[in-house]
Specification:
alpha/beta, four-stranded parallel sheet, Rossmann fold, binds phosphoric acid mono(formamide)ester, globular, 310 residues, single chain
Length: 310
């Protein structure tokens, strides 16, 4: 595999733990794995005999399936457990559930949970490798990495680009992983949205704040819209979705303020007509489905690297 640098992480909990060399190795490995998904027989024996468990306590379309497809394309055995089918519904703790799963000797547990820190809690208490597939409002590292890969593919570089991230920054683990990842790789990250959805201290992660969306997007190479995470808001943080769409939605007019060759991104799921105008979501600059394609390659790389591949 590419380069001399060796990946030493047992777990993937957040991009805050990753060096620039780690990120570059994941992206190079993902680029080399991407071709496998274009073959008529989309399977290699790389992880034959390895066991991967998807433990998802929150809904997911892209991430859960993408990790499963990634593991299966490398011939690992995969198993899925959701919150409704797990014994946590009978009162078992998360750690007890994970320890019982570990007793069946999996090599890797991929967890999504509504609580920030749940992936680290698991990593501290079980023997298997843990990959964070989104923990509360904390981080979603594989999404951050697939977004980095998509930008690098589209623009040929990451350093020096302006990345505008618009929407619910406060509740978005995707925003947090992207701010950390893009800043580490030398991009300028500007976040925009209503004051109630921009958390204090976000500058410490590496972002600058612009409450006016047109200013945030001005000259940007990448415009990333984020979903309003109503499931994480205790009280309404803006008057109505209609007003939100009018003031903060990424519309053709907002996109006109970006660089002429700017790309449009969204991690999904999209609330069409709220944070993203359908004309923008489906327009020629949108790379939203490329993000999903790259998600499989990035997750193949992550599973491969934490299992000792280099
Ligand atoms: N981007 C993302 O995490 O999507 P899912 O919630 O469908 O996994």
């Amino acid at each position: 595999m590419p380069g001399e640098y060796h990946f030493t992480h047992k777990h993937v909990l957040g991009l805050a733990d990753f060096s620039v060399a780690d990120i570059n190795l994941v992206l190079q490995t993902a680029e080399s794995f991407k071709e496998i998904s274009t073959r008529s027989i989309k399977k290699v024996p790389t992880l034959r005999g390895k066991t991967v468990i998807n433990l998802f306590f929150e809904p997911s379309t892209r991430t859960r399936l993408s990790f499963e497809v990634a593991a299966k394309r490398m011939s690992a055995d995969t198993f899925n457990i959701s919150s409704s089918s797990s014994s946590t519904t009978k009162g078992e703790t998360l750690i007890d559930t994970a320890r019982n799963l570990t007793a069946m000797k999996p090599d890797c547990i991929i967890i999504r949970h509504s609580r920030s820190g749940s992936a680290r809690l698991l990593a501290d208490n079980i023997d298997a490798s843990v990959i964070n597939a989104g923990d509360g409002t904390h981080e979603h590292p594989s999404q951050g990495l697939l977004d980095l890969m998509t930008v690098k593919e589209a623009k040929g570089k990451i350093a020096g680009l302006k990345i505008a991230i618009i929407g619910d920054i406060a509740h978005s683990r995707v925003a947090h992983s992207n701010i950390i990842g893009f800043s580490k790789m030398g991009a300028q990250v500007v976040v925009g949205g209503p004051a109630t959805l921009i958390p204090p201290g976000i500058e410490e992660m590496g972002a600058t704040v612009s409450r006016n969306v047109i200013d945030a997007v001005d000259g940007a190479d990448v415009v990333m819209a984020l979903r309003i995470q109503q499931e994480r808001q205790q009280d309404p943080l803006f008057p109505s979705l209609r007003e939100y769409a009018g003031f903060y939605g990424v519309s053709p007019k907002v996109v006109d303020a970006a660089a002429p060759d700017a790309i449009i991104m969204h991690p999904g799921p999209i609330n069409r007509g709220v944070e993203l105008d359908p004309r923008v979501a489906d327009g020629s600059r949108s790379v939203i489905l490329e993000q999903v394609t790259n998600g499989v390659a990035v997750r193949m790389a992550l599973i491969y690297l934490i299992m000792g591949g280099n």
